[in-house]
C-alpha cells in the first residue's frame, strides 16, 4: 500500500508490507482525520465560512508542528479529488447561469479586477517575498480555496506558504466584510440554504460522470485533472438542469477533512522563523489584493448603481460559499452576489490550467508524484 507522509517540507511516498507497519500507518491516517474532524467541527460551531477546510487545516497544522505524524493514502487522495470536483460543480444552477447575462458591466469589471488582484498579489509574493512562480500564483488566486490547494499540491507549490496566505485571507475577510457592509453593525454569518441531495439515481449519475471526466482529464494531463474533470462534468450536469443532486455530508465532509490533512501535513519540520516570514508576506499580499478588489467594487457601484453591500460581497475574494452565506445573513441580494462569486469561481477553474501551462513552459513540469 502506498501512502503520502510528511517529511520535512514535502510529502514523500512510502510503501509497507508487514502487518505491523500497515496497522501503524492505518492508525496514522485515521489519527489525521480525527484531528481534522475536531478542527473542522470547532470552526463549524463558530460559523466560520469554509469551516471544514479551514478548521481541519488549522488543527492538523498545529498537530504536525507539535511533531505528530499524519499520512494520506494516494488512492484515497484521488477519490477525494473527484468528490471535491463533483461538489464544486453543484454550485452551478440553471437559474444562476440564466441570470449571468443580466450583469455584463459588473461581470466585465469583475473579470478585470480578478486579473489585477491575482497579478498584484503575484508580484508581491514573487518580487518582495522571492517565492517561486507556482507558489506565488496559487497564493494569489482570489477564492476557490479547495481547488487552489489541490492545484498547489498537484503542481509542487510550497503548501505551507499557500495555506498561510489563503487561510489568512479568509479569516480576515470574514471579520471585515460584514463590518464594511453593515457600517460596523452586528451580523452573524448564517449558513446558506443547503442544496438538495436529490435522488440516488442523480447521485449515481454525478459520481459516474465525475469519475469518467476526472480520469479523462488526468489522462490528457490537465492540471489537477481528477478535480478539474469532475468539476466540469458536475457543472455541466447541474447548469443544464439534468440533475439537482448534491453530495450528502457523509461523503463531502471527509473530502474537506482530507484537504486539511494534506495541507496541514506539509507543515512538518517548519520552524518559527519561516512561519513568521510567511505570515508577514501573506498579510502584505492580502492588503494588495483587498485594495484592488475594493477599487473594483467601488467602480461597479458608480457604473451600474448597485448598493455598496452588494458590490463588496460580490467582489470580496472570500470564496463562493463564504460570501453567499454572508449575503443571506445580511439580506444583501443573494442572487447578485452568488452569480458574481460563481462567475469568478468558474473563471478560476477555466483559466488556471492555461496559466499553469505557461509556468510549466518557463520552469518545466513538476516532479513526478
Topology diagram in text:
Blueprint: E1 2-7, E2 10-15, H1 19-45, H2 51-65, E3 72-73, H3 74-89, H4 94-99, H5 104-128, H6 133-140, H7 145-154, H8 159-182, H9 200-219, H10 225-239, H11 249-265, H12 272-304, H13 308-315, H14 320-330, H15 334-363
Antiparallel strand pairs: 1-2, 1-3
Helix pairs in contact: 1-2, 1-11, 2-11, 3-9, 3-10, 3-11, 5-6, 5-12, 5-15, 6-7, 6-8, 7-8, 7-11, 8-12, 8-13, 8-14, 9-10, 12-13, 13-15, 14-15
Describe the structure in your own words:
Helix content is about 70%, strand content about 5%. With about 375 residues, the chain is mostly helical. The protein has helices spanning about 20-45, 50-65, 75-90, 95-100, 105-130, 135-140, 145-155, 160-180, 200-220, 225-240, 250-265, 270-305, 310-315, 320-330, 335-365; strands spanning about 1-5, 10-15, 70-75. A hairpin with a 2-residue loop joins strand 1 (about 1-5) and strand 2 (about 10-15). The radius of gyration is 20 Å and the shape is globular. The chain contains 15 helices and three strands. Helix 1 (about 20-45) packs across helix 11 and helix 8 packs parallel to helix 14. InterPro entries: AbrB_dup (IPR017516), AbrB_fam (IPR007820).
